[in-house]
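Entry for the shared binder. Reason: the reviewer on the internal report wants the predicted structure included alongside the sequence.
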Amino acid sequence: MEILLIRHTTPDVEPGTCYGHTNLDVNGTFEKEASEIERAISDFQPDSIFSSPLIRCSKLAKKLFPHHPFQLDDRLMEMSFGRWEKQLWQEIPKDELDIWANDFMHLSPPGGESFKDFIKRINEFETEAINKITSTKTALVTHSGVIRFFLMKHLNIPSDKIFNLHLNYGAVIKIDIHSEEYSQVKILKG
């Protein structure tokens, strides 16, 4: 099985803003970034396509796959940061951030979700959506957190190390799953 992971293009938001579930549109570089992604995936013909319902992903899915139906799935949304959404990271109380950062796996931002709950949600998506279809090539238009989950799972990266990986907007990564024990990753667009 091959899974193509496509991160959305640059969102229309002030740099340094905390956002996950916030439904942001894309900025003015969308067409240029989408064209670069199209070139990177030109050889990949998916059997099935899924997208986060947030506009920054669904807009890209429509652009990349105009003649192919795709399914929106809420489980592909970015992690929810609850009350921190749309705040600048530097304006979130440091004591709150520190407590969360020290145990982000189990603790959630106020009104948000923990990384453990986030992982559970995406794992359910993979089990129910991807593994139950007969497709051998699946494309996901989604967010950096979701991509990190797939890399963490299929490359056995420890959860406390997955945030060391920088994923640019418009990144495209292909995972070839040969077995439960062996997967290969190819970065098509960094």
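Summary line for the report: Helices lie at 30-40, 55-64, 94-102, 115-130, 144-155.
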